[in-house]
Automatic annotation (TrEMBL):
This is Leucine--tRNA ligase. Keywords: Aminoacyl-tRNA synthetase, ATP-binding, Cytoplasm, Ligase, Nucleotide-binding, Protein biosynthesis. A motif ('KMSKS' region) lies at residues 580-584. PANTHER family: LEUCINE--TRNA LIGASE, MITOCHONDRIAL (PTHR43740:SF2), LEUCYL-TRNA SYNTHETASE (PTHR43740).
Length: 823
């Protein structure tokens, strides 16, 4: 077969892999395990270049590890619930299930055409009853443990998708999916109590050295731990107190008024009758604005006076109580002691409403005048106007004041987290039904075990009229209460799709396990995932939820691992003409067309060669052409040397000529380099260039037909084929077979290098005359200064610069450079 025709090669090997179940794995205790995972795709319809890149990266790792003797679990599946299926159903009048499963079939065939080394026997789709039924079971177990609860709350509401969004799904006040502006709405919602794990989630970020630092930083900031105090402020004329949370108790002596969240439960109680109408109007207004806007730095600070006063417990100052739009109900205690001199928001608020300022921290060598201040002073300084704490540094005073408050019974030291519980209710059909029944008499009643799973009814109608189609399926909704037998209504909220992706990696360990969600033994063998690969856009959402789920399931006894992903690689985007490849930009390259024209190996090679995985990949048609040409060269080279290397055996280092020894050195140095580049690293592009150089070296090696060169030549081309196998598996298998091997290149294992063969025998010395580069000479390793000089003086390029001149001195940097000074 003289010509490289990808179609002939790729189909053939894909069938062999499938027939031989080459990538099917079991929990083999005799081998080291390696769990490799790429983030599973949403079955949107077609594979895009981002997928091609993600999965090509993963496949190199998987094939390399397999060649190195690891038992590699490399599964694939579908994140199959979600809104697009329902929207498509509305648009085309079909069923979300039909749309989803058709897309899965098509995309699976696309992935198979890429020659990815998946164990397809473990494939799962999260919309399979067999998958989501286990999620319902775990949900109810978490409910029992108080890890799931229902409460009425204000939620982010996307008016276009007509569903609730988690905080993580709101970007700049807009829906992460459709970009419409997010509104606030009060609804009964289901939550996972992720906050119970806030501390452990934070703490364990320090035990994940295999994660990119910036992802860890984003998670730490998202969890947002802060240390401070809760302080009680008496209310004038009442017994009740107002509790605030502050991280700046050092500013307590400067607190001049109070700011409460408009939704604060004490807001109306405190309001005096004459202020009531105005206060109510303000509360209504704020409830309509979304939280993200309210807390934006440049959003106008607005408030209303309640008519009530608090007493500052250390200064006895009367502090007017305001409601303020920037104070949120669900952070801290929902109430803030306002210190306008040292907090910028309070400063702006005080200026707007003419409230008093008191400086309690002075900057070094300066005296702040409250009347002249144009911004709050937020740095560390010297304490003033603060009674016994005057003269201290403010950062030291923090601790002292906290102690004092505790001793006096005014306040307590507390820790606060920014992390909120994870709202998972979605008012949509195409999701996992929350398995409870709402009874007027009994309240929330879990669906009894014998009645699980709650299966999505197939006869819902998708009219696009808004609301949840599930809620309109009477046969689904109308049930009797399992507890009291009264008429009751089935819950129609479904779970956020991020719930399914929070444990799919556990189900991959045991996809056929029939007696529970997770087989402890098998999950115990595979977990944690050794290498996870996916986009940076999941830095907080999916990666935090998965960590939470793993910990929660550990506490339910399902797994032993505390962390799901040992190493994380976040790959860059694929860009073309300077922009992210996307339909809206009109710059997409279709993987099908690419594979049709060049074959999967070229598509893989290009995406791996064009840039390091973490960086963005700039699409280049010439680059694709170049990769294709390279594969053609390798192909031709193998068939060119094939007649000469027939039955050649391993080279005998002792009997090699100079040229052969040089080639062999290049071969072994290349093996060493590629191994280094792939082992626990992702330097694919430099590994590929090293192989390209090796191919050049083989091409220029002559004479190829000399019998004594056959062993070295054979070793050289075989190494090329082996080193390329993880990148371009089809070509590699075909050439390996052509070279006379049976059983496949992967099974042959990864080549090892002979350290002796890599030792340099000659050195290249740069020769300068009066500091200018004039030539290069080759000398034997171990040559002394005199030999180097002799070679330099005799060199044709150097000689003309010395002719007729007097040599004053020569400076030799051993092994590198000779500078001859003439005059
Ligand atoms: C007084 C003070 C003085 C504050 C000062 C800051 C500076 P972190 O660090 O992010 O935890 N705060 C407390 N609860 C709030 C809520 N529900 N909505 C809006 N703001 C709230 O932030 C803690 C600080 O944020 C607290 O410390 C409080 O203002 C404010 F010079 O108290 B501080
Ligand atoms: Zn009941």
């Amino acid at each position: 077969q003289e010509r490289y025709i990808p179609k002939n090669v790729e189909g053939k090997w894909q069938k062999i892999w499938e027939d031989n179940k080459t990538f099917t794995v079991t929990e083999d205790p005799s081998k080291p395990k390696y769990y490799l995972l790429e983030m599973f795709p949403y079955p949107s319809g077609r594979i895009h270049m981002g997928h091609v890149r993600n999965y090509s990266i993963g496949d190199v790792v998987g094939r390399f590890k397999r060649m190195r003797g690891f038992n590699v679990l490399h599964p694939m599946g579908w994140d199959a619930f979600g809104m697009p299926a329902e929207n498509a159903a509305i648009k085309h009048g079909s069923h979300p299930a039909k749309w989803t499963y058709e897309n899965i079939d098509y995309m699976r065939s696309q992935l198979k055409k890429m020659g990815l080394s998946y164990d397809w026997g473990r494939e799962l789709a999260t919309c399979d009853v067999d998958y989501y039924k286990w999620e319902q079971k775990m949900f109810l177990e978490m409910y029992e443990k108080g890890l799931v609860y229902k409460k009425s709350s204000f939620v982010n509401w996307c008016p276009d998708c007509e569903t609730v969004l988690a905080n993580e799904q709101v970007e700049d006040g807009c829906c992460w999916r459709c970009d419409s502006e997010v509104a606030q709405k009060e609804l009964d919602q289901w939550f996972f109590r992720i906050t119970r794990y806030a501390e452990e989630l934070l703490e364990d970020t320090w035990n994940l050295p295999g994660w990119p630092e910036r992802v860890l930083v984003m998670q730490r900031n998202w969890i947002g731990k802060s240390f401070g105090c809760e302080i009680d402020f008496p209310v004038e004329g009442k017994v009740e107190k107002v509790k605030v949370f502050t991280t700046r108790q050092d500013t307590l002596y400067g607190a001049t008024f109070m700011s409460l969240a408009p939704e604060h439960p004490q807001a109306l109680e405190l309001t005096t009758p004459e202020r009531r109408a105005e206060v109510e109007a303000f509360i209504d207004k704020v409830k309509k604005t979304d939280k993200i806007k309210r807390t934006a730095e440049d959003f106008e600070k607005e408030g209303v006076f309640t008519g009530a006063y608090c007493i500052n417990p250390v200064t006895n100052l009367r502090m007017p109580v305001y409601l303020a739009n920037f104070v949120l109900l669900d952070y801290g205690t929902g109430a803030v002691m306002a210190v306008p001199t040292h907090d910028q928001r309070d400063f702006e608020f005080a200026r707007t409403y003419g409230l008093p300022l008191q400086v309690v921290i002075q900057p070094e060598g300066e005296t702040l005048d409250p009347a002249a201040m144009t911004a709050a002073y937020t740095e560390v300084g010297t304490m003033v106007n603060s009674g016994p704490f005057d003269g201290m540094r403010s950062d030291a005073a923090k601790e002292k004041i906290a102690d004092y408050l505790e001793k006096e019974g005014i306040g307590t030291k507390t820790v606060n987290y920014r992390l909120r519980d994870w709202g998972i209710s979605r008012q949509r059909y195409w999701g996992n039904p929350i398995p409870v029944i709402n009874c007027d008499i009994c309240g929330v009643v879990p669906v009894p075990d014998k009645d699980l799973p709650v299966v999505l009814p197939m006869d819902a109608e998708f009219t696009g009229e808004g609301g949840n189609p599930l809620a309109r399926v009477e046969s689904f909704v109308n049930v009797t209460c399992p507890q009291c037998g009264a008429e009751a209504r089935r819950e129609t909220d479904t779970m956020d799709t991020f719930v399914q992706s929070s444990w799919y990696f556990l189900r991959y360990c045991c996809p056929d396990f029939a007696s529970g969600p997770i087989d402890r033994a098998r999950a115990g063998y595979w977990m944690p995932v050794d290498q996870y690969i996916g986009g940076i856009e999941h830095a907080v959402l999916h990666l935090l939820y998965s960590r939470f789920f793993t910990k929660a399931l550990r506490d339910l006894g399902y797994v032993t691992a505390a962390e799901p992903f040992k190493n994380l690689l976040t790959q860059g985007m694929v860009i073309k003409d300077g922009a992210k490849m996307s339909k809206s930009k009109g710059n997409v390259v279709d993987p099908d067309a690419l594979i049709e024209r060049y074959g999967a190996d070229t598509a893989r090679l290009f995406t791996l060669f064009a840039s390091p995985p973490e960086k963005d990949l700039d699409w280049s048609d010439q680059g694709v052409e170049g990769s294709f040409r390279f594969l053609n060269r390798v192909w031709r080279l193998v068939f060119e040397v094939l007649p000469f290397i027939g039955s050649a055996v391993k080279p005998d280092p002792a009997s090699l000529g100079d040229g052969a020894r040089d080639l062999r050195r290049t071969v072994h140095k290349t093996i060493r380099k590629v191994t280094d580049d792939l082992d626990e690293r992702f330097h694919f592009n430099t590994a590929i260039s090293a192989v390209m150089e090796l191919v050049n070296a083989i091409q220029s090696f002559e004479p190829k037909n000399a019998p004594e060169n056959a062993p070295v030549l054979r070793e050289a081309v075989e190494s090329v084929v082996q080193l390329l196998a993880p990148f371009v598996p089809h070509v590699a298998e075909e050439l390996w077979e052509s070279l006379g091997h049976q059983g496949g290149v992967e099974a042959a294992g990864w080549p090892s290098y002979d350290p002796d063969a890599t030792v340099e025998e000659e050195l290249l010395i740069v020769v300068q005359v009066n500091g200018k580069l004039r030539g290069k000479v080759t000398v034997a390793v171990g040559a002394g200064e005199e030999q180097v000089k002799a070679a330099a003086f005799a060199d044709d390029k150097v000689k003309p610069w010395l002719d007729g001149k007097q040599i004053r001195k020569a400076i030799y940097v051993p092994g590198k450079l000779l500078n001859i000074v003439v005059g």
